Amino acid sequence: MKTFAVKQYFRRLILLSNNISLGIDAGGTYTDAALVNMDDHRILQSEKALTTYPNPLGGIQDVLDKLDPEILKQTRLLSVSTTFATNTILEKNGAPVALILIGTQKVPEHLRDNCVVVKGGHNYRGVENEELDLDGIREYVLSVKDKVSAFAVSSFYSILNPDHEKAARSLIHELTGYPVVCGYELAHALGAYERGVTAYLNASLLPVARMFLEAVAEETKRRGMNVKTTMLKCNGAVAMFSEVMERPVETIFSGPAASVLGASFLSGKETCLAIDVGGTSTDVSMIEDGIPQISDLGATVGGWKTKVRAIKMETIAAGGDSHIWVDAGNILEARAPSVKIGPRRVIPLCRAAIMYPELSETIKNHWTPHNMSLNEFFQKTTLLLKSGYEAVNLSPEEIKVYQKIPSVPVFADDLDWKDFGGEIQFEIIEALVNKRLIQLIGFTPTDVLHVTGEFEEWDADAAQLGARKLAEIFSMAKEDFCRFMKRKFAKIMAVETVLFLNDTFSREELNAFMDKFGKGYGSSSAGDSYMRFKIDIPIILIGAPVRCFIPELEEFLDAEIIAPEHYAVGNAVGCLAGKLARRIETRIDVESKEEENGDWTIRYTVYTNDGQRSFSNKNGAVQYAETYAKKDIYKYMAENDIKENDVEIHVKTKEMIYDPQKPPVQIEVLIEGFAENKV
């Protein structure tokens, strides 16, 4: 009774706070939620639920159900990160879009059937190359308007003069009323090809983003929450839901951005490396003086190279749910069997045994295949079943294989393959797995931790059974095999960390070098245990249950390695650590002519979305660029209820000089505005 009274007292104290925020991260395996008092950075409550596919809203509802409803009603800010944009691109489930390229441009290989090139565009001075072919645009739009739901437009050198993109947009609106995404609105850097791809992907994500974000907003209203709603972008900044609905492509990789912000927030370290171990991948990123490091290259997702600014990260397809499987090797090549982690994600045995109680008996009674026949889909611990997704656009052979697969776990060799001459159709199985029609169950790092006793979320007996089956291939005890796999997984984290800081190494070199480290399996001599890579900034671990890997990581890395309190929901907390930000890049071209008397006549031309303006002196041009950018930034912040005094402005000026004896040929002015994401 006394304990209950104390809990009620602290609950009343929480409800008195007027600065409670909610962060939600819908990751690959789990959807995490954290209620945070932003005044003192206390985590008031955190919960986890399994992410739901293909719509993550179900997982969000499940995790919200676990949170105190009265505290939820006191929440004033909601910030979300999710994989919906990345998954939509990877799974090619975006809305149908037509891309119009203006000027002499290369058509993206992926888009040959969804793209047209018309005359127009500008040169490197923003001067029109040739007149815009409005008749060509009209003809194309009318021919495809019944097949698409949006249009994307990208014109040559539109970052210096967007007039042709604006004219095309006006015409398309007049003809169809459909959404139109212009490249100049999304990217201010050179690269017409990447701008076109970025505009296309953004247009394809529009209905997906709107459906998801409106559903989340409706869910909060249903629970009596009156919240400001924001989402974390892949550069570590946040944006209002209304902005994300217009520019959803900027949210790809929001999860890794959330992890590095969460690592800094939870550890109190303004400068640190973050290692985020998720279900599918392990990501390494860095924050310096409170600002995430941004890649100089645009984000690349699913083979699409974009102009989206994203955090710099190293990633590898190895996570808590990654498939641990044995490669049989090759006698002719003198290649011995080896154990691999990933890249494919599977349902861990320990979790599958809860979902399918008969699983352990199925594994025990299964005939063990010969070790030299093993491949990714033919293992002592790997089963398959139908995923439940709708099967469409399958070849006749794929249909025959798909119809063999039951809705309960089964080994591939237990199925009837007579109509295929007795041969298991591994290539077709792989194709159906890639199409998400077949789900795999297998041994994973999560199972490893159930065997070592460091994680107890699911069925440890199923994990023990899987470990024994794999360990016997290498004549090892299951405990030794799992210690070996823990160290192997830690080495993956260590290798990615070193690669992030220094890419002059190759991954192969680092793996071979680290095999000699430490006191575990693979070290070659006692002296090697004194060798480690030294890293002078803290390494913060995020994701459940990363704490278990600290001893193994310390064998490879000489660094302060921290798993802060609430590390398991670090991404949900990171959603709340992002700031509102606005970045304006302005280019100033410099035309100079040396007179006979040795003086220089110089003209500075400033390019903005409002057009060009020329100045006779550098200070006037730079000041105009700064004034224009700040006006835009303050307007953006005001739209988000942020006052000018609460905006932090950063100004960077870069001059391109080819000859020190001559004036610069170009000046770039970068203005960034930051403000706390608060109500």
TrEMBL record:
Domain Hydantoinase/oxoprolinase N-terminal: 22-174
Superkingdom classification of source: Archaea
InterPro entries in the cross-refs: ATPase_NBD, Hydant_A_N, Hydantoinase_A, Oxoprolinase-like
All residue ranges annotated as the Hydantoinase A/oxoprolinase domain in the record: 195-343
Signal peptide: none
Name of the protein in question: Hydantoinase/oxoprolinase
